[in-house]
Amino acid sequence: MSIRTASPLPGVEVNTLGEVYRVSPDGKRTLATLYKVNGYRMVSLPDGSREYVHRLVAKAFLPNPENKPEVNHLDGNPSNNRLENLEWTTRSENAQHAFRTGLINPYQRSAPCKACGALTRAKDGICPACKPRLRKVARDADKAAAAHDQAAHLMTGGLTQRQAEYLSLRSQGLSYADIARLRGVSRQCVQDAIQKMERYMTAPGRCLYPVLDRELRRRKIKRGELAKLLFLSPSCLSNRLLHTGLPYRDCLTIRDAYFPTWTLEELFASPPSYPDATTTAVP
Predict the structure, then answer these.
(1) Which helix H or strand E contains 226, and what residues bound it?
(2) How far apart (Å, rounded) are the C-alpha atoms in residues 89 and 72?
(3) 279 vs 155, 160, 170, 252, 276, CA distance in Å?
(4) Which residue, 10, 173, 197, 207, is the most exposed by fewest CB within 10 angstroms?
(5) pLDDT higher than threshold 70 for residue 174
(6) Quick one: DSSP state of residue 40?
(7) Statement: the pTM of the whole predicted model exceeds 0.85
């Protein structure tokens, strides 16, 4: 194959071997110095810009009727800029060629999925197949935790056997539907029974601190607001108000936030004699 020479740009000549020459105004030709950038040969042009050698060769010798934007190296070697090794191509065609020849490995930057071990390029390390399943597991865990929190602060004394069973299963994280299937009743029956127990156990007058409970209601301070003040969950706060009592630190926090003129003895006075919760049946 004969060597041909052409000038794709003013002051520059290239040949079919991929060699680049500078051409001075007086016609003197000088072999240009090439350098590599990411494996590709580049040359500095007389106007101060830079260009890839393979693009100069393609512009000089290869027709491009479809106006394709990229030049592909057929053998995959970016340093081989001979004319017979080049072709005009689209971005998609270039990528497909690189994949077929092994220049691009889609799993080069992959890592094993944290759940199943399959290779994935996901930033969080979880492959697309596992994400829906893990989200469902997380939702189920949240529901079970909410069910446990709902039942954990309720007293079991004085309940009928069936009510105690409902409460025990609910505290294990079972849903209303699961309990209904186990006991052969409707879901609504289980839900109504547990919510009735919850209303009874948290009813006004069953707080260990009746003065505090009365003042909170008078000032329209909700227990959710009080739970945030003490950095507690609502169920944990209810358990302390109804059964275990508040620690001294929490008593000071409540007094200082809402009742600065009260003494601790006045605000957290002992309750009157309520019916024993362990012997009183739930109505």
Answers:
(1) helix 223-229
(2) 6
(3) 11, 11, 22, 33, 6
(4) 10
(5) yes
(6) E
(7) no
Q: 3-state DSSP call for residue 60?
A: helix
Least confident piece of the model among 11-25, 48-62, 197-211, 212-226? 197-211
Identify how many contiguous H helices and E strands the chain contains and give both numbers: 11, 11
Q: How far apart are CA 93 and CA 103, in angstroms?
A: 13
Question: How far apart, in whole angstroms, are the C-alpha atoms of residue 57 and residue 17?
Answer: 9
Q: Is 45 left (phi over 0), alpha (psi -120 to 50) or beta?
A: beta
d(CA 251, CA 255): 6
Per-residue HEC secondary structure of 93-131 comes to: HHHHHHHHCCCCCCCCCCEECCCCCCEECCCCCCCCCCH
pLDDT at 11: 86
Write the DSSP symbol of residue 243: I
Q: Are 178 and 171 in contact (CB under 8 A)?
A: no
